[in-house]
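[09:14] KT: can someone run the structure on this one? pasting the chain below
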Amino acid sequence: MFIAIYATFFFIILRFAVTIFNFISDPKLRRVNRNYDHLVSILIPARNEEKNILTLLESIERQDYINYEVIILDDDSSDRTYDICVEFAAKHAAFKVIKGKELTGHWLGKNYACYQLAKQAQGDFLLFLDADEQIYDGLINSAVHRMHFRKLALLSLFTNQQMDTLGELLTVPLMHYLLLNLLPLRLVYLSKNSAVAAASGQFMLFDAEVYRQHEWHKGAKDKIVEDVEIMKQVKVRGFNGESLLANGMISCRMYTGYTTAINGFGKNFLAAFNYNIFSFLIFLVLLIAGPMIVIMTLNFQLILMMIGLILLTRIMISLESGQNAALNVVLHPLQIFSMVLIAFSAIQKYLTKTTMWKGRKI
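[09:31] RB: done, C-alpha cells below
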C-alpha cells in the first residue's frame, strides 16, 4: 500500500512539475508587428471535407498576409469537396485546386497528399494546414518571423480547439492535457535529442529549401503520426525544429461528437508512448488506480494534497491552451473515463491492425 501511495504521488508531482514548467515558460507563438513579404505556399490536403473547407478558404482570404499562394489537393473525395474548392478558386486568383494521384506503395493518404502538394509549391515557406481549421490576422507574419528568429527548418503549432458539443468537451481537451502534462514543450527546440519531439499536423511550416532537399513527408510516408516523425527527422539531420501553442491565431474543430472523437484519437493515441502498450498501461494504472488507492487511505491531508495538485494542473493547462478552466475541472473525471475508452480503442485497433480513417485502412 505504501509503495503504491509513494508511486502515485511521485507520478502526480512529476507531472505537476512539467505543467509548472510549461505554464511559466509559456510556449506560445508571439505576435509581431513586423511585416514580411516572402511567398508562403499554403498547402491543404482535403478528403471529404465539404462541411469544413469553405470556412478555411474564406479565413485565408480574409487574413492580413499578402504574398501567398494556396494549393488544395482533393484526395479522392466522394462528396462535393472538389467542386466547392474549384468554385472558390475561380473567384480568387491566389487559390488553385489539383486532383491527387492514386495512392501507391507504402504511402498513407495524408502523407502522400502533402508530398504531392509540396511538389507543386513555389513558395519560400511551405505551410501545411488541415481542412477543418480557421486562421486569423497575424498568424503568418508571426510564424515567418519565428522561422527567421530561431533559424528553424520546421515550426509546428498546436491550435486552439473549438468544441461545440458535450462529447467534444469530454475528449478534445485531453490532447493539450497530455501534451502539457507530460512534455516540457520548450525542450523540443532546446534539446538536440530527437526523442524529445512533438508536432501537430494541423500547422506545419517548413523552410522550403530545406524541405525540397529532404522531402520530409517521403521519409515518413508510412507513419500514422507523421508530424512527430517528421520533427524527429528534422532534429536527426541537425536542423532546428520548434513546437508552440497557437496563442489564438489559428483554431480547429477536430471532431463533431463523442464517437468520432473516440475513434479519431484512437488511431494515434499510442504514438505518444512509442506504441509500447506496457508503458501505456502503466501510465493508465498510475493515472486512475493511484488516486483511488490514496482515497482508500481516508487520510484527509493526503487526499486534499492530491486533489489540489490535480486541480491546479488542470487549471494551468486550460489557461495555457485557451480553454475553460472551470469546465475542465468539473468534467475532469469524465474526461479521464473517456481517456480509458480511447486507450482501449487504440490498443484494440493496434493489435488487430484495423485502424481506419476517412474510409481507408491505415
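[09:33] KT: thanks! The two ends are 42 Å apart (CA to CA).
[09:34] RB: yep, looked fine to me
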